[in-house]
Design a protein that fits this description.
This is tRNA-dihydrouridine(20/20a) synthase. This protein is of the alpha/beta class. It folds into two domains: about 250 residues, TIM Barrel (Alpha-Beta Barrel); about 60 residues, Four Helix Bundle (Hemerythrin (Met), subunit A) (Up-down Bundle). Helices cover about 40% and strands about 15% of the residues. It has 18 helices and eight strands. The protein has an eight-stranded parallel barrel, surrounded by six helices. Strand 7, helix 10 and strand 8 form a beta-alpha-beta unit. Helix 4 packs parallel to helix 6, helix 6 packs parallel to helix 7 and helix 17 packs antiparallel against helix 18. The longest helix has 15 residues. The protein starts with 6 loop residues before the first helix and ends in a 10-residue tail after the last helix.
Length: about 325
């Protein structure tokens, strides 16, 4: 099990918090591919935890460490109470979402809209820091929102929030447009500005800064790590996890242990799946996160089809995965 103090080492490569995707089943699957990368929960709102009592949203498996929880909110006292709940459950880090552009998030006055109110974010982080004891509290933000000028806004935001004691930021290298673009469009349409994020590392050399947005390959991650302290990968780690995570420990962390194959990872999921099924979890809830593991490989389409069609059926279990796996050649000759 990873200990809390190695969180910064793990943050060299992290898998982004992704709503409806990075749940506990997904994280367990990803952890079987990389022992070292930092994994994030989906965003959990502070009101859901503190007012709604939905502490089951914080459930995770001990094997997921190092694992960070991302909170959404804008009330310092409520975020402090939520942070305390996260720390009690043993998370390695508590992160505040200052990047999500969805309407639902805006209506709750959290997410990317908070880029407009750095002093409020600083107050939130100070309260979270007090509640977190020795656990690190961090921020994930954008480079700006709407018609803000990122060259001015981002450094001012970082400076203000860092003054509250925050020493780690993950910066999504795009603006968020709160009006006129959907959350999906906000992940693609605003242009990436990697040079700006790199300049933040020059401007704030004592802070631990990670870069996020549009990074899909380990080679690209390594190039960013020439400048940045960490790289966060989102959708590519979900849709094509094998290409991002299977070699990550070797390529990013210098781990000498050999990487698992995708087949080995699938088979290593069997005991976990059987245990979850015994607790009443549906197979589809787990296998939906595994559909992309053979992306680009012979047999991938058959693998996806068998799982997509069969995993929701009553009684579906590990035998269905074994059948799907039998259609994917174990050793593919180099092309």
């Amino acid at each position: 099990m990873s200990t809390r103090h190695d969180i910064r080492a793990a943050a060299r490569l992290s898998v982004a918090p992704m709503m409806d995707w990075s749940d506990r089943h997904c994280r367990y699957f990803h952890r079987l591919m990389s022992r070292r990368a930092l994994l994030y929960t989906e965003m959990v709102t502070a009101p859901a935890l503190v007012r709604g009592g939905a502490v089951h949203l914080l459930d995770y498996n001990i094997e997921e460490h190092p694992v960070a929880v991302q909170l959404g909110g804008s009330d310092p006292r409520e975020l402090a109470a939520a942070t305390k709940l996260c720390v009690e459950r043993g998370y390695d880090e508590v992160n505040l979402n200052v990047g999500c552009p969805s309407d639902r998030v805006q209506s709750g006055t959290f997410g990317a809209v908070l880029m407009r109110d750095a002093p409020l974010v600083a107050d939130c982080m100070a309260a979270m820091k007090d509640a977190a004891q020795d656990i690190e509290v961090t921020v994930k933000c954008r480079i700006g929102v709407d018609d803000q000028a990122p060259d001015d806004v981002l450094p001012a935001f970082i400076e203000t929030v860092a003054a509250a004691g925050v020493t780690r930021f993950t910066i999504h290298a795009r603006k968020a447009w709160l009006q006129g673009l959907s959350p999906k469009e906000n992940r693609d349409i605003p242009p990436l500005d990697y040079p700006l994020v790199h300049r933040m590392k020059e401007a704030f050399p004592d802070l631990h800064l990670s870069i996020n947005g549009g990074i899909t390959k380990l080679d690209d991650a390594r190039a960013h790590l020439d400048v940045m302290d960490g790289v966060m990968i989102g959708r590519a780690a979900y849709h094509d996890p094998a290409s991002v995570l299977l070699e990550a420990d070797q390529a990013i962390f210098g781990d000498p242990a050999p990487a698992r194959s995708a087949h080995e990872v699938v088979e290593a999921m069997y005991p976990y799946i059987e245990a979850q099924l015994a607790q009443g979890v549906r197979l589809h809830s787990i296998t939906r996160h595994m559909l992309g593991v053979f992306t680009g490989r012979p047999g991938a389409r058959k693998w996806r089809r068998i799982l997509s069609e069969g995993a929701s059926q009553d009684g579906a279990g590990v035998a269905l995965l074994a059948e799907a796996l039998s259609h994917v050649p174990d050793h593919v000759p180099a092309s």
